[in-house]
Write a structure and sequence with these properties.
By secondary structure, this protein is α/β, with parallel strands linked by helices. The protein is built from nine helices and seven strands. Helices cover 52% and strands 15% of the residues.
């Protein structure tokens, strides 16, 4: 059935740009066959032309669309060996700032999108075992307390889902991982606020930095990984003193947001 005999098959969501497109390029160079999933057909076709992959136009927040996509993939491939659950969107504000529809959209894409894609593809991942799932979370999934409440909530739900599924899927030979990047420059997440901040700019990751970490976490078979790794001590401290740490993060976030708005005025 498979059109890619002797090649490992990877499915990458959010593959039309950003981390998804970057990791698809790297996988293709390592002789993986990629199924590229996103909403924008024109951008998917561009990445497919670079990588030799195939495309699936799908909105991961729509459960029926996701399960229909999985059925189509199953007609072409007997097994899937890697799923990169990358599709996501920014919140662009706190709970009191953005409209309710945006809050729903963020949760449906960042959290439920991960849920539907993984659940729909479990049979193919089990057929490809030992196989891997990499969820692209965020440091915000652990370090809550800034101004982006809806985004942080969606990423926290995503990391809890990843941890739960790691236990449930282990007996099936499916290994679940989570990459937690810090500030990163992508089309959907421009880091304009660091433009005039030479220290802050050093903290901003590139798309390739995160794509490299996706491949690294699979090779090393690690459960979770902060990128850069210096966020790890902050994550442990947050676990010990969550309320205090959240207050500090909130103060720091409000201060930076105020300075950014004054600069932009």
């Amino acid at each position: 059935m498979s059109t890619t005999a002797n090649k490992r098959v990877a499915i990458v969501t959010g593959a039309s740009s950003g981390f998804g497109a970057a990791v698809a390029r790297k996988l293709a160079r390592e002789d993986w066959h990629c199924v590229l999933v996103a909403r924008r057909r024109d951008r998917l076709e561009e990445v497919a032309a670079e990588t030799g992959g195939e495309i699936e136009v799908c909105d991961v927040s729509e459960r029926d669309d996701v399960f229909a996509m999985a059925e189509r993939i199953a007609t072409r491939h007997d097994a899937v060996h890697l799923l990169v659950n990358n599709a996501g969107m920014p919140g662009r504000g706190g709970f009191l700032e953005i409209e309710p529809e945006r809050i729903e959209q963020v949760m449906n894409t960042n959290y439920l999108g991960n849920v539907w894609v993984l659940l729909a593809l479990v049979p193919l991942l089990e057929a490809g075992a030992p196989s891997h799932v990499v969820s692209i979370a965020s440091v915000a999934s652990v370090l809550a307390g800034g101004a982006g409440g809806p985004y942080t909530a969606s990423k926290h739900a995503q990391i809890v889902f990843s941890r739960s599924m790691a236990s449930e899927l282990a007996p099936k030979g499916i290994r679940v991982h989570a990459v937690k990047p810090g500030f990163a420059e992508t089309e959907g997440f421009p880091q304009d606020r660091f433009q005039n901040d030479p220290i802050g700019r050093r903290l901003v990751l590139s798309e390739d930095d995160v794509a490299d970490s996706i491949l690294r976490i699979v090779r090393r078979n690690r459960r979770e990984m902060f990128v850069p790794k210096f966020y790890a001590p902050a994550g442990m401290l947050y676990g010990v003193m969550p309320v205090t740490f959240a207050r500090v993060l909130g103060w720091f976030s409000r201060r930076r947001e105020k300075a950014y708005r004054e600069e932009s005025a």
